[in-house]
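Hypothesis: this fold can be encoded by more than one sequence.
Test: take the structure tokens below, design a sequence, compare later.
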């Protein structure tokens, strides 16, 4: 196992720690739990860049890494978004359920689409899109904003901006990935009608 993959595994192991700390904070109000959860989220987010850098710099790209890295990203963000979708008042702000549904729905559709393309075409080409990266940034900032409790002094005004941006870029990135998948399917001979 490469160093980059070990860093990615550490990111995955930080997810349950983050979840437990936030749940304890919501139940008890003990600030040390919130800070520990925030630290776990921040470290896992920073390590996302570190493992990518290590993989590129030391030529440690691997097939396992191509599976683990996006898995670690999704586990961290989806677990944070789901936990913050519950009514955690008065301790933490809340992410609207429509946004949680949009994020999870997009990821489920993309996973199903990837399986279909792989079964029909035999391989899949995933092109990272700017909209997907911007959606991830908006989602991470939104989570950190809530964990830092900055929505309280600003009366949720900026949180609404992050929520709206997350929603718009999540939906846009989903459409672009669906478009790419349909394009790959349409170019494959198995998807064209045979004329006899």
């Amino acid at each position: 196992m490469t160093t980059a993959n070990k860093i990615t595994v550490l990111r995955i192991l930080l997810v349950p720690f983050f979840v437990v700390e936030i749940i304890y904070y919501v139940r008890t109000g003990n600030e040390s739990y919130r800070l520990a959860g925030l630290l776990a989220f921040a470290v896992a987010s920073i390590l996302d860049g570190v493992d990518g850098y290590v993989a590129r710099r030391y030529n440690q790209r691997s097939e396992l890494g191509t599976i683990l890295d996006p898995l670690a990203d999704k586990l961290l963000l989806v677990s944070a978004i789901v936990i913050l979708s519950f009514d955690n008042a008065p301790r933490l702000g809340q992410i609207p359920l429509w946004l949680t549904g949009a994020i999870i729905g997009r990821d489920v559709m993309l996973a199903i689409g990837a399986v279909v393309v792989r079964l029909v075409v035999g391989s899949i080409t995933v092109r990272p899109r700017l909209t997907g990266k911007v959606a991830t940034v908006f989602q991470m900032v939104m989570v950190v904003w809530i964990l830092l409790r900055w929505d309280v002094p600003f009366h949720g005004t900026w949180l609404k901006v992050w929520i709206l941006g997350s929603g718009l870029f999540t939906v846009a990135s989903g459409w672009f990935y669906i478009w790419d998948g349909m394009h790959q399917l349409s170019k494959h001979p198995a998807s064209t009608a045979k004329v006899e």
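The chain has a mean pLDDT of 90. The CA atoms of residues 13 and 72 lie 9 Å apart.
Hypothesis status: open.
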